[in-house]
UniProtKB/TrEMBL annotation:
Residues 1080-1157 form the Nucleoporin POM152 ninth Ig-like domain. Residues 457-561, 767-853, 1163-1247 form the Nucleoporin POM152 Ig-like domain. Residues 69-153 form the Nucleoporin POM152 N-terminal transmembrane domain. It comes from Clohesyomyces aquaticus. This is Nucleoporin Pom152.
């Protein structure tokens, strides 16, 4: 056994006891210690057990120590271990910076740790030989660390490590493509500025106008008292400075002696203070405007009391008035009111509008000031507006501002504008509506009210009279022009109206019935709406305008009236006797009346029986000719005198020498009052007939009802002269007859009634009908031109028929009377005849729609024409056929009408050509013929048809009009690639700046192009169509949906120009190649669109890195190179960020993108304008903390109150408060002593906080949490 330490399986060896020979062999212990005397069999170790040669070779490290000793091997192993950890931490830093996790990195490091831990013992380096169990435990520990680091599991090591690395590498790329440190952005101390220190005033202080009141003087307030607050002092002298507003000159005012004692006495009396040391408010009287400053206060001990810097501005009180205006307006006018305001700008005014006693809401204008005027009132941050060393007070001068008011006066009535209140920039308020308020100065200024009346606008139209419905009046009579008054309101305006109208006499009217050129313009004033213009002369009256005392009005339609003077009425009569047929005695007189005038007429005549007085009679006549029967009831001698006549227009006119006489002996008789006109009735109706009986009564009346051969007799005893016959229900259709058979009078004389004793009642089954018959089986006929034609009619009903028909070709409507059911209608004009209506002797009828038209045509002369179409138009006296392309087959058809066959002769010539003219003849057996066009050569061809004949007509120059057809033959277009054989690169997604394929065209633009795309590996080419190419030079772009990844060939398939000419190149012609690459993409790693300054915008890029990212920030285009698959930038400034394009290294493809993010600024807050201010207040007094914000409302901020700093002692936080503001500024009153400062601010999007000692949770890290409400 030797002393060389042996390693157990995976165990650590003991400290070596033997040394190694250079050859690697082992020596005995004796060889390394002192030598032992050589004595036989004393202390000699046993010989070693023989071992295999290979076992002796495994006793040392894998790398022999003579090459690299054990300590150096341990050093290199440890260096490799440290290098692996450095690499590991570098990967972790990149993941933490990009806020990502990586499973691949985790697996990579687990694999590397396993290789290192399990392979290191194989090198048999002393002290680095561990067992398998130890290796497994080490691997588990390292794998856990790999998981936590690569998946960024939150452990404190991450924060420590990132903080440590950030100390050396605290910079990163921002949106502006420059390296910036995020620390100054996230910890920007200028975001929270300002501090206000409040002290409780010590003894002995003086302040001018402590409550910051406003003061002003005017004509009613000639003096006022300005307050001076003193505390813990009794002044003996007060010195004030007055700065004149107009001249900027200073005036010193000294208050001492008796004046100061009087002020103190009044102050103590007003305060009623028990404690002598209580603050007193001195009231100093001033009578001049200006800026007053408290310069010096001297107390009883002859020491100066330091006054607080403050000023009082005593200005002229603001005033306002309404500009005077007219007292009467019209509805829908503009108010045209102006407000004149005078005072210290900026001014504010309140005014109220009252309409008909109803007040509207108060209107207000603020911040009124002249243009380019800047007032310090909106900018000062301290109590004193004016300091002793800055005496420019020109801003305190009164300025004049005019505010125009223009609103539409939509309602009538009394409108009033009144100024209620005016306020100047200092806060001086003059209220004109509260005279009882003694605390406010008031003025009695004329002009603060402006009242005017808004009147309705009149309108007028003519009612009941137009040129189509004229107004008729008797000659010399005066008529009212029928005006109807109205207004823009609810009814007419009660008041005078001025009417202007044009008058043209009837003899001077224009041919269209309008006003003549010499029309007379008349003007009349109507005192009320009950009056109307009086007119008497016949002619046309047209209203031109209407107006009232205040307003112009509107003339509505109808606005014209025609006045006519009809002729005066007159009468002439003729008479004949009415004789009894039985006795032969005259029983009455039949008088014929012939009238002149305007129906209806009223005729008055006197009937006088001999020995009796005259009895006036009246008769109404509705026509110009009529007949009346004068049948007296009693016998005797009668005289009829026609006395007067009256028509629709004229009143009674006397008649002269119109007298008729007769001896009358009337027999008994009876007749129907309605006459014997047949009546129409429907089934189941009953009929009534009024019968008048004459002679001596009582009477016996016998009558019959006859139907269908059946006669029913009836008898009635009648005592009165009038009797009504009532029938039963007429239950069957057909003709009924009611007949008066006989009448027997008082003497028993029976008279048979024949004439006028029957009334027929037709109970109709159907209505009459009319339609056209047939001629040779058709309702159409052709005849020689000019020959009369009779059209067959078929009618049903009772004659005569009144027939109305229309010639559809001309639109003429005619009416005729037909007496036969199969009559003929004579016509002489060709056309289509349409039956419109028919009426028989009894009732209107119907037209049979199927046979309501009849077509009449002449046998035509031969005609030649060319059918117009989209390709053949008529212009300039000739037909122009669409141009055709060279070499294309084309023809056109001529239309022939007449009697075939036809013979046509035409001439063909080339305009401007050298071949001259050729003439051809054709014979056509049908109504059309096709003419082949000449297209072999380009040019303009003209075809002139000069002769035409048919089977019945020879050629006639008188009736024939030559026809010319013109056609242009266009040359073919052509195109070519500018660079045939070239290869162009494209992207799979469309982007700007892509390559185009230049081409050149020959022909007339725009062009139509078809190209074939032959993709590699695809047998069938794809077609790409390009339309409306406007120029001869064209950059060809292939649609991306037709591009395939890889290589493709493009060739020209077809081209067409604006003329429609097409050219197809031969196969195998020139072509170009295209190469299509895939386009990169970008995806935001966060879905939100709103970020804050200081945050990082991260996007995942797909494609072949490195990438070129194109983006815009605040309208400025930028380009960035990105080597990794994550694009990350720090938002250093607020603005709008949009990624517009992305290009990778695989190709020149620029992918168009629109990834928009909005970067919001970190909010800021200023306390006391961002300055450190000290405010002194009295015990119990109040001071305001004025906060101003920047950012997006609403705001939430936290501020602290700390103890005022004392030398040698740290300030201590007393309280923390959090407030919310909806606006950009906030004022908070405080009354406690201390130092106030803001520690955090948060707006709608972002937040920021600064560290405060002694306050938990107030770290210095600016957050980006938005404020939500």
């Amino acid at each position: 056994m030797n002393g060389t330490p042996r390693r157990g399986p995976g165990g650590f060896p003991a400290t070596p006891q033997t040394s190694r020979t250079p050859g690697g062999g082992a020596q005995s212990p004796d060889t390394t210690s002192t030598s032992t005397p050589s004595r036989p069999n004393v202390g000699i170790p046993l010989p070693a057990v023989p071992r295999p040669a290979e076992d002796s070779n495994r006793n040392g490290p894998l790398i022999p120590t003579h090459i690299l000793d054990a300590p150096q091997q341990r050093y290199y192993a440890f260096a490799l271990y440290v290098g692996l950890w450095a690499w590991r931490l570098y990967d972790f830093y990149n993941l933490a910076k990009d806020e990502e996790e990586s499973l691949a990195s985790c697996l990579k490091w687990c694999f590397l740790d396993m290789i290192f831990i399990f392979c290191l013992p194989l090198f048999e380096i002393p002290w680095l030989e561990w067992s398998n169990a130890t290796a497994f435990i080490l691997f588990i520990v390292h794998a856990g660390l790999d998981v936590m680091l690569m998946f960024r599991i939150g452990i404190p090591v991450q924060t420590w490590l990132l903080g440590f690395l950030a100390f050396f590498f605290d910079s990163e790329l921002a949106i502006s493509e420059r390296s910036v440190k995020p620390g100054p952005i996230l910890h920007n101390a200028s975001l929270i500025l300002g501090k206000q220190i409040i002290h409780i005033l010590p003894e002995g202080s003086a302040i001018l106008n402590p409550d910051k009141q406003s003061f002003c003087l005017n004509s009613t307030v000639t003096h006022l008292e300005i307050p001076i607050l003193i505390n813990q002092t009794e002044p003996v002298e007060i010195e004030l400075i007055r700065i004149d507003i107009d001249t900027n000159q200073n005036e010193t005012i000294v208050i001492k002696g008796r004046d100061i004692r009087s002020l103190l006495k009044k102050a103590r009396k007003s305060a009623k203070a028990v404690v002598p040391s209580s603050p007193l408010l001195l009231q100093h009287t001033v009578k001049k405007t200006g800026v007053y400053l408290l310069k010096r206060v001297l107390d009883q001990s002859k020491l100066e009391v330091r006054p607080r810097a403050a000023s009082v501005v005593v200005a002229s009180c603001p005033q306002a008035r309404v500009k005077p205006t007219a007292h009467n307006r019209c509805r829908n006018d503009l108010s045209n009111i102006a407000l004149h305001i005078e005072g210290i700008a900026p001014l504010r005014i309140k005014y109220r509008t009252t309409v008909n006693g109803k007040q509207r809401e108060v209107s207000e204008f603020q911040s009124l000031q002249p243009d380019e005027f800047v007032s310090p009132l909106s900018k000062h941050t301290s109590q004193a507006l004016v300091h002793a060393n800055r005496q420019d007070v020109s801003w305190a001068r009164s300025l004049k501002v005019t505010v125009p008011l223009n609103e539409t006066l939509l309602s009538s009535g009394v409108w009033a504008y009144a100024v209620e209140e005016v306020e100047d920039g200092l806060g001086n308020v003059v209220n004109y509506l509260s005279p009882e308020d003694e605390d406010r100065p008031r003025q009695k200024i004329a002009g603060i009210f402006q009242v005017f009346t808004v009147h309705e606008r009149p309108n007028v139209l003519l009612q009941g009279c137009t040129p189509q419905q004229p107004l008729q009046a008797a000659k010399g009579d005066v008529k009212r022009l029928p005006l109807k008054y109205g207004s823009s309101g609810d009814g007419p305006i009660d008041g005078p109206h001025s009417i202007e109208y044009l008058f043209t006499p009837s003899a001077s009217l224009a041919s269209e019935g309008e006003q003549g050129a010499d029309a007379e313009l008349r003007k009349q004033t109507m005192k009320s709406t009950r009056e109307q213009p009086l007119i008497s002369a016949s002619g046309l009256y047209t209203i031109k305008s209407v107006s009232t005392e205040f307003c112009e009005g509107e003339v509505l339609e109808p606005a014209s009236c025609l006045l006519q003077n009809p002729p005066e009425p007159d009468l002439s009569v003729s008479s004949e006797d009415i004789v009894d047929k039985c006795a032969g005695n005259p029983i009455g007189l039949r008088v014929g009346l012939d009238l002149i005038g305007t129906p209806p007429f009223t005729i008055r005549y006197y009937e006088q029986q001999k020995g009796q007085r005259k009895v006036p009679r009246y008769t109404q006549v509705s026509t110009l000719r009529s007949t009346i029967d004068l049948l007296p009831k009693d016998p005797g001698h009668y005289t009829y005198t026609f006395d007067s006549i009256k028509d629709f227009i004229y009143n009674e006119r006397p008649l002269h020498n119109l007298v008729l006489e007769q001896d009358v002996k009337p027999p008994a008789s009876a007749h129907f009052l309605e006459g014997t006109t047949p009546k129409k009735a429907c089934i189941d109706d009953t009929m009534e007939f009024d019968v008048k009986l004459q002679g001596e009564g009582p009477w016996k009346l016998e009558y019959e009802l006859v139907y269908n051969g059946k006669r029913t007799k009836y008898a009635a005893e009648v005592e009165q002269e009038h009797y009504t016959i009532k029938t039963q229900k007429l239950k069957n259709g057909g003709e009924y007859t009611v007949s008066l058979a006989s009448i027997t009078d008082k003497l028993g004389c029976k008279v048979s009634l024949e004439e006028d004793s029957e009334v027929k009642v037709n109970v109709r089954h159907e209505r009459p009908k009319a339609y056209f018959g047939h001629i040779e089986g058709k309702q159409a006929v052709k005849a020689l031109e000019g020959k009369p034609v009779q059209l067959p009619l078929r009618l049903t009903g009772e004659r005569p028929w009144t027939l109305e028909y229309e010639i559809l070709d001309s639109g003429d409507v005619k009416r005729t009377t037909v007496n036969s059911a199969n009559d003929k209608l004579d016509i002489k004009v060709a056309g289509t005849y349409q039956l419109l209506s028919v009426r028989d002797a009894v009732c209107p009828g119907v037209i049979d729609d199927k046979a309501s038209q009849f077509n009449v045509a002449w046998i035509p002369r031969p005609k030649i024409s060319v059918a117009e179409s989209a390709t053949m138009i008529f212009e300039g006296g000739r037909y122009v056929k669409d141009a055709v392309c060279e070499g294309e087959e084309d023809s056109f058809d001529i239309l022939l009408s007449g009697n075939p066959p036809y013979e046509v002769s035409y001439q063909r010539r080339v305009m401007g050509g050298k071949n001259g003219m050729s003439q051809k003849e054709i014979r056509a057996a049908t109504g059309s013929a096709s003419i082949r066009a000449e297209t072999s050569q380009a040019g303009t061809y003209e075809y002139n048809f000069v002769q035409l004949a048919d089977n019945k007509y020879d050629h006639s120059s008188k009736h024939f009009s030559p026809v010319t057809v013109q056609q242009t033959v266009n040359p073919r277009p052509n195109t070519k690639f500018n660079n045939p054989g070239k290869t162009y690169s494209y992207c799979s997604r469309e982007s700007d700046g892509e390559e185009v394929i230049p081409m050149t065209f020959e022909g007339i633009p725009p062009f139509y192009l078809e190209v074939e795309i032959k993709h590699q590996g695809t047998p069938k080419p794809e077609l790409s169509i390009h339309k409306s190419i406007p120029t001869h030079k064209y950059d060809l772009k292939i649609e991306h949906r037709k591009l395939h990844l890889g290589h493709s060939a493009i060739s020209i398939r077809k081209i067409r120009d604006a003329r429609g000419c097409t050219h197809k190149p031969a196969p195998g012609g020139p072509r170009v190649q295209i190469s299509v690459h895939d386009a990169p993409t970008a995806t935001p790693l966060e879905d939100r669109a709103d970020f804050c300054v200081g945050e990082r915008l991260s996007f995942a890029l797909s494609g072949q890195n490195p990438f070129t990212v194109y983006y815009t920030f605040e309208g400025q285009e930028r380009k960035a190179s990105n080597p990794s698959s994550t694009f990350r930038r720090l938002a250093e400034l607020p603005g709008s960020f949009t990624i517009t394009g992305l290009r990778d290294s695989a190709s020149e493809c620029l992918a168009s993108l629109s990834l928009h993010k909005t970067i919001h600024p970190i909010p800021s807050v200023r306390l006391s304008g961002g300055l450190v201010t000290e405010v002194d207040i009295h015990e119990g007094g109040v001071s305001d903390l004025e906060f101003s914000f920047t950012g997006t409302p609403p705001f939430e901020f936290t501020y602290t109150r700390s103890t005022n700093a004392v030398r040698g002692r740290k300030s201590r936080v007393l309280e923390i408060r959090t407030e919310t503001s909806q606006g950009m500024s906030l004022r908070i009153p405080v009354a406690e002593e201390g130092t106030y400062e803001v520690v955090s601010i948060k707006d709608r999007w972002c937040s920021f906080a600064r560290p405060v000692e002694g306050v938990d949770g107030m770290g210095g890290k600016g957050g980006q949490k938005k404020l939500a409400y």
